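In the current project phase, we have settled on a layout for protein records. One protein thus recorded is set out beneath this paragraph:
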Amino acid sequence: MKTTLSAIALSLAAWPAFAAIEGPLISAADLQAELSDPELQVLDIRAGDDKGYGGGHIAGAVNAPYGLFRGPEDNPGQMVPADALTETFRSLGLETDRPVVVTYQGANVTDFGAAARVYWTLKSSGFEEIAILNGGINAWTEAGYALSKDAVTPEASDITVRWDDSWTASVEDVQAAISGESDTLLLDARPESFWNGEQAHPAAAQPGTLPQSQYFVHDSWFGNGPTIIDASAAQSLAEENGLTGSENLISFCNTGHWAATNWFALSELAGIENVKLFPESMVGWSNAGYEMANVPGPLRYLWIQIKNVF
């Protein structure tokens, strides 16, 4: 009998402690059911003011504003160095061997890109059990769950970030795709107006897109609100739009925000291998002076600038 009990104990020990947090998405109901577990780490990536974390957050959540995971104003998509991430994650009390849930406002489909970018950063930093609260804080309150105004000050951890570039596209990766050296689909997550050079991000050197690219707008993964579709629907959508035929896929946009949604949907939901995010995207690429496509002529560019002002 002792042998049988030991076998059962070993079996239970091997079973995931957080069955509901299997990722990459978690519902409000499932998160509510897991909140009492002290091992759970909940990050609220909204601003700390009264319109964000300070106005009410999920009990026990630590405030980790999105800016901590982004670059400077003139190049927001720039990656945060591993040593800086290490310092940030230590101050947030994060540990890679504990599950983490990313929460955000859920105001609209663009808002999801922040959660996806943070998820990508955590995964690349060595976290394995990660989930995004699908629909964000808005979904949480709509489900009838309460918010807390008690700020959480975590105990510092001793984490050291060792960046895994498996999901990061470098400039060299993009250049190899453009030259045809690799079988890679360059996928622009921006609306068509950006892809065809009719619009540009304020920090970009000029409008346009990557040569040899096609676009698939980031909001295609959503229904009638900011809740992203499930894995089965994502797989079907990817297949229907020919996004599964290349050996590699690089997702990009203006600053790696919208592109993070495409990366998340393709890599984490649809389960497509070798999907990478190009963090700096068109802002970094255009300011470095690399080759671009769909760049408007001088007169058209002047007209675009006038339209953007007014």
